[in-house]
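Hey team,

Filing this mostly as a record. A colleague (T.K.) asked me to run one chain through the structure pipeline before their review meeting, and I want the input and output archived in the tracker in case anyone asks later how it was produced. No errors, nothing strange. Just documentation.

Input sequence:
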Amino acid sequence: MNDTRNFFLVGLMGAGKTTVGRALARRLHLTFVDSDHEIEVRTGVRIATIFELEGEAGFRAREEDMIEQLVQRQGIVLATGGGAVLSAKTRERLRQHGTVVYLCACADDLWQRTRHDRNRPLLQTADPRARLQQLYQERDPLYRETAHIVIDTAHQTVQKLVNQLEAQIDRQKLHENIER
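Output structure:
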């Protein structure tokens, strides 16, 4: 596998972007980066605090700037925030600078994975399950538009997901080589 390739993981909160991203980076001998973590390091505060002080719009502006910088790196697996695809510029940058992988999971599975997590600002509502369903309906088309590869994460171990992803990446590389 060529170390100059980048892989960008998109999907809703709870889809497994960080967990799968770390495992994929280890497997491909690439560097793992999490855009939310990078924003927290740069600002010195948690994402929830940014949402509280600046609102979602303020956070999204920071997220767009951070991803613009991160996609310039080489040889990374990047776990993006769940809402990164809301920005048309970010969607375009991701597609141009690497292979975009949509880790797709249904809203019910995502709810099971996130329901006890209090660090999800968008789920701090009276009906977080309904909010997650709404986010899925709004964002799924954007994830699919952006992705080169779509992987269904339902009922799969991280190892199986990474194996599946690696097989799809290899098929994509073979297809690209045939087109040349």
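Quick notes for T.K.: The two ends are 18 Å apart (CA to CA). The first helix runs from residue 17 to 28.
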